[in-house]
Structures are given as C-alpha cells and as structure tokens.
Amino acid sequence: EREQRLLEGELDEQVDALVEILLERGLYGTWQRAGEAAVRPPIDRSPAGGKAVWVVAETLGGELRPVTFELLGKAAELASRYHGEVAAVLPGNGLNRHVAALAAYGADVVYLADDPRLRDYGTDVVTTLLAAAIEKYRPGVVLFGSTAIGRDLAPRLAARLDLGLTGDCIDLEVDLGGRLVQYKPAFGGNVVAPIFSRTSPEMATVRPGMLTPPAPAPGRQARICRLDTSRLPASRMRVVARSESEAAAAVALDNAEIVVGVGKGLGGPENLARIAELAEVLGGAALAATRPVADLGWLPRRHQVGLTGRAIAPELYVAVALRGALEHTVGIRNA
Question: Which of 113, 169, 269, 329 is 20 to 30 Å from 103 by CA-CA measure?
C-alpha cells in the first residue's frame, strides 16, 4: 500500500522534490496518517467468564512503554473472541498512577504488585511474582513485549512453569478452533510461520511497533487486584549507578515520529556528528543503527533496529549509508 516514487534529475533537484513531498505529508506539522491508521477504535466486548488475556506491563524511566498499549489493544481483540477479561500485570514500586492509563487502553483488571524490591527489574524476583500469580489466577494467554526485559523474563517464567513460549511474534489471532495463532518470522523474515502452543497458558512475546494501539477511553475503570509480595526473594542484583539518559534514549526511539538510521557505510563513528546535525534539523529525530554499527560500538546496542534488534514505527525513516538488508528492514516495516 505504500506509495513508491523514484526521484530523478540532478541531486539538488531530487533534494528539493523530496523536501516538498515531506512537507506535503506533514513534516514539521501534522502527519497525514495521524488519527487515521495511527490508532484502532476500542473493541466493544462483554467479559463472560471466558479465557483471560494478560499483558505484562513494562515501564522505562518510570513511564509505561508504548508496547504495553499495543499489547492491550491486541489483548482486547483476543478477549472478545474468548469472552474473557483483559488484565494488565504491573510490577514495580510507586506505579499506582499508571492504573488509570492501563484501564483507558483496555484493561478490565490491573494486577498491581507494589514493593520496594520491585523498583528495579530483577529476573528472579519478577519471575517468582508472576509464577505465583499465574498459578493462582490461571489466565489463558500471557503476553510480553519483545524488549530486553520481555526477552529475559518470558523464557525464565516459561521454564519455571514448564510452559511453551513463542518469541518475537509480529501478530496474534484466534482461529476457528479457538487456538491462539502466533505469527513469527522465519528464515530471516522471508516467511511468516503460524505457531500453536500445546501448554496453557499460551505465552508469547511480541515485537514493539508491530501492533496498532487502541484509542484510549478516558474515565474507563478497571478493578484493582493487589498481588501478594510477602514471599518475594531478595534480589541478587544491586544497582550501583543510574543513567537517566539511557532510559530517555530508549523511550525516544519507541515514540519517535522521525528516525535517522545509520549503517556501516558511514565510515566510522567520527562521522556521527554530521548525522546528529541532520537529526537536529529534522526536529530532534531519534537515531537508529544496523547490527554492524552496534557490533562495532559506534552506537549503543539500544539503538539497534532489525531482526535481532528492535522494531519501530515512525512516520518518517531516513536511512543513511545502509544497504537495506532484510534483517534490518524487518524492523522498520511499519514506518
């Protein structure tokens, strides 16, 4: 569906034409797509005791990550087929303020775990918390974002509970038999394979940027259920330093309307200053990188986009000095 246009003529003429196209599409203003395909309308459903769909909410820098809202939208779609409720699981400390947002985006119930031991993510502590909650409440489906935390937590939880897990899904649906179909890229993204689970609850991680978030419904209420944290183990992790800029950079790439991606053809990290100038001219665009750039340490790993990195969905993606390998472009398919 994407318009494909080849610019010809002298380089200056091509640049002028491209600028005009981008301005028409909404650069420095309101993007044409905004408010249309950017969100999906809320699904009208009535939970009736069917299979519950859980979303493990994730925060970064104290704020909910966009993938949580994307998953809640998909969870509502699945729950409407199962006639069950949508639940958000929110582990952390002092995060009560996010309950209203989770409800607005579709959660019928919020399982809240508020404990100082959960202030910083620790695999052992959160795994113990979620394993106990799943065994007690028996959800039908549990979804995670395919982020650094989700990729760490979901496999540990699956192993703890002896469950199957499909990682890095790009979409989910319910088939005519009521089975959860988990779509996962295979063979380097050349094909998409449907995966079915043999265990319950069915568990999957979903790549950020692959799903369309729902339109929020302000004022919507959710039931709050507090999870027992009295038996949580002490974390084996000790935080020795914090860098707010690290979290800010990751959030910026999650939410960015404009992203500038760089490849190995840049020549070296000394040329990143010129890319930073371009990003600034584009209104403070976020930076993305191919895997070779991250491997070489020119940009931190959190900037890596692609099959083994993260997926993003900006309105505009400017690729500089990269060849567009499938392993990278699979991460920008929703741009």
Answer: 169
